[in-house]
Write a structure and sequence with these properties.
The chain has a single domain (about 40-65, about 75-225), classed as Rossmann fold, CATH 3.40.50.880. It contains five helices and 14 strands. Strands 4-3-5-6-14-13-12 form a seven-stranded mixed sheet. Strands 7-8-11 form a three-stranded mixed sheet. The protein has a two-stranded antiparallel ribbon with strand order 1-2. The protein has helices at about 50-55, 85-95, 95-105, 115-120, 215-225; strands at about 5-10, 25-30, 40, 65, 75-80, 110-115, 120-125, 135-140, 150-155, 165-170, 175-180, 185, 195-200, 200-205.
């Protein structure tokens, strides 16, 4: 299906004075429009609204998912940051845990950010609560300490190109080990993996929805467009 080209905004926003001294980028995707995509956002707890707003800004539909019926007609799902134990508890009470486990096991496109990465992981540290157990990664929760220890870092992500991606880490987990099918997409300066992909599963330890740089959202949408 041929659609009108979609021009994406600069990741550093279009406002005056934003992104000074940093390279701006623009992308035009020909023969495809993300308006044909519907990316659900798990809306049980956490910063789901911010993800929804970014996806809608990029031209795709982003319905909020709270019940099993909300999973119908989706091309992908974002599991946002928040409190992982609370999200797992709400998944159970909403009867979403089993359907999401099956979807992830069947290769349905999912992206977990921060707490969402914890929920996707097969292996957790002793403080973690197993959830979807879909991605062959080992994750440690709150790896950098409390919320006051939050920080930002420039990441070199070859899948996104230049400039470096400015990532926001808030009570962030880290990836401690990866299986052979997992591709590490980004590391901190000390080599710690903080973003990874396994097939149609994407995991980031940071919060892309809290920055004006939407390249990770675009990357997720592009992978949906290419593989779906």
């Amino acid at each position: 299906m041929t659609k009108s080209p979609l021009s994406l905004p600069s990741p550093h926003g279009g406002g005056e004075g934003q992104g000074e001294g940093r390279t701006h980028w623009s992308l035009v995707i020909c023969h495809w429009s993300f308006t044909v995509a519907t990316i659900g956002v798990l809306a049980l707890q956490g910063d789901f609204r911010e993800h929804r707003e970014v996806i809608e800004r990029l031209g795709a539909a982003a319905p909020e998912v709270r019940l099993p019926k909300d999973l119908e007609g989706l091309n992908g799902l974002i599991i946002p940051g928040g409190e992982s134990t609370a999200i797992v508890r709400l998944m159970r009470t909403s009867n979403l845990l089993d359907p999401l486990r099956k979807m992830a096991a069947d290769g349905f496109p999912m992206w977990g950010t921060c707490a969402g990465m914890i929920l996707l992981a097969k292996r957790l540290d002793a403080s973690g609560v197993p959830a979807l157990e879909a991605m062959d990664i080992g994750v440690r929760r709150n790896a950098f300490g409390r919320q006051v220890d939050s920080f930002e870092a420039d990441l070199h992500v070859s899948a996104l190109g230049d400039p470096p991606y400015r990532a926001v880490f808030i009570r962030a987990p880290i990836i401690e080990d990866v299986g052979p099918a997992v591709e590490v997409l980004a590391r901190l300066a000390d080599g710690t993996p903080v973003a990874a992909r396994q097939g149609r599963l994407l995991a980031t330890a940071f919060h892309p929805e809290l920055t004006p740089d939407h390249r990770f959202h675009w990357f997720f949408l592009q992978e949906i467009a290419r593989q779906a």
